[in-house]
Design goal:
Layout lengths: L3 H15 L1 E2 L2 H4 L12 H21 L17 H11 L2 E2 L5 H17 L2 H13 L4 E4 L15 E5 L2 E9 L9 E7 L10 E7 L5 E6 L8 E12 L3 E2 L5 H16 L9 H10 L6 H29 L7 H24 L14 H7 L10 H12 L20
Parallel strand pairs: 3-6
Antiparallel strand pairs: 1-2, 4-5, 5-9, 6-7, 7-10, 8-9
């Protein structure tokens, strides 16, 4: 196996041939939106650039570094991946889009765990390469944080399932070709046991996607309506009634991956560049805040590396992901607080320069206290499954979903 030093040298050469070095000055003008605030055509163009870069990396051997060669990966260690991530930050790249990240880091590994050979052949490599994009069809208006209480129904009719219901907060659904759908297949079973997962082609008749406008300006989230949508049983993901296990795996990947996503909405690098541009680097409050953000980012990266190593050893996602996700949400909150310290009244008055865009971060960051399970849900999981504290009383635990008051 290539040593880290040899790998970095080769990767640097490749990056120098395919990208331009990133300047600190650029970071102060880079987007710091937590959720994209772009017209639909511009967001589609951004997503196309992100996927094109993803394909370029993948074909060069840098797009799925820890995945096995059978899936188009490089079969390298998490240390190699971490080294490439650090190196890539030195270059100007198209950035990130949540749908591309969800596709490659959440749904691809879920299909790898639970998918049939045909499902894996059809989707894992395309999702990793950026040829296919997939969204999550989990949350519902009536379920809130109680994801297991979802009401979207899937009824089996011969070799097909007919699905009716509504999903919401599905990031990037308007651009996705596929959706990972969780639906209720047995209303007579307790809510956690009557669920089944499916892979849904988003162009299936009966699927309607409506983007939702956010207070930060963009329309990254969508609501998705499912009206007599027919899904072949060949696209069922996992066993009938085992949808909660599939759901937890995807959420585990999401929570574990959260801590490593240091560029989302801006972070230490962007704050430093903005502070330097405004002449605030000598302010002790600014310096202290920057140091705290840097430490939190490094801890998140190390935690993500540890999780990847465990997964490569064969471990499935665990409840430790809730710690990662909670820390990530707190990191975004901390970045907002430091931005307020750096900008002062520039945060609320548009003076015509680029620093006012930090407003989009401050308005968007609270959303991640809900996304992927609210902070309160994460604390319950940590308390019960990590610390071993007594569980909360749950009156509906063994009650058939059909009989739960709603």
């Amino acid at each position: 196996m290539t040593s880290i030093d040899e790998f970095v040298a080769e990767a640097r050469t490749w990056l120098e041939q395919n990208a331009t070095p990133r300047q600190d000055a650029d970071a102060s003008r880079a987007s710091v939106s937590v959720f994209h605030n772009l017209p639909a055509d511009e967001e589609r163009a951004l997503l196309d650039r992100v996927c094109a870069w993803q394909r370029l990396r993948f074909d060069a051997g840098y797009g799925a570094l820890t995945w096995p060669e059978s899936d188009g990966g490089a079969g390298l260690t998490p240390a190699h991946e971490e080294a490439f991530v650090e190196l890539e930050r030195e270059f100007d790249t198209p950035g990130q889009h949540e749908l591309a990240s969800v596709s490659a880091h959440l749904i691809a590994p879920t299909i790898d765990l639970f998918g049939t050979p045909e499902q894996r052949r059809r989707l894992v490599r395309p999702l990793l390469r950026g040829d296919e994009l997939a969204c999550q069809l989990f949350s519902e208006p009536s379920a809130g944080s109680d994801l297991a209480g979802l009401a979207t129904r899937a009824e089996q009719r011969g070799t097909e399932w007919v699905v009716n219901g509504q999903k919401v907060w599905s990031s990037g659904a308007q651009f996705a070709g596929w959706g990972e759908l969780i639906a209720r297949t047995d209303p007579d079973a307790p809510k956690h046991r009557g669920l089944t997962a499916f892979l849904l082609p988003m162009d299936t008749p009966g699927v309607e996607v409506r983007p939702l406008r956010q207070m930060s300006g963009g329309a990254s989230f969508c609501e998705v309506f499912l009206d007599d949508v027919r899904i072949p049983d060949t696209w069922r993901l996992g066993e009938v009634g085992a949808g909660w296990k599939v759901t937890l795996a995807t959420l585990g990947f999401e929570r574990s991956h959260s801590g490593a996503n240091t560029e989302l909405g801006g972070g230490y690098r962007h704050l430093v560049a903005t502070a330097r541009r405004l002449g605030r680097l000598d302010d002790p409050d600014v310096r202290r805040g920057l140091a705290e953000v840097w430490v939190r980012e490094k801890v998140g990266e190390l935690a993500a590396t540890r999780d990847r190593e465990a997964r490569l050893d064969g471990a499935e996602p665990t409840s430790i992901g809730s710690l990662r996700k909670l820390a990530w949400a707190q990191k975004l909150k901390q970045v907002s607080e430091v931005a307020v310290t750096v900008l002062g009244n520039r945060l609320v008055v548009d003076t015509g320069d680029d620093v006012y865009q930090w407003t989009e971060h401050v308005l968007g960051a609270p959303g991640y206290r809900i996304a992927g399970g609210s902070d309160e849900i994460q604390r319950n999981i940590i308390a019960e499954r990590v610390l071993g504290l007594p569980t909360e009383p749950r009156g509906d635990k063994d009650v058939p979903w059909r009989d739960i008051p709603r």
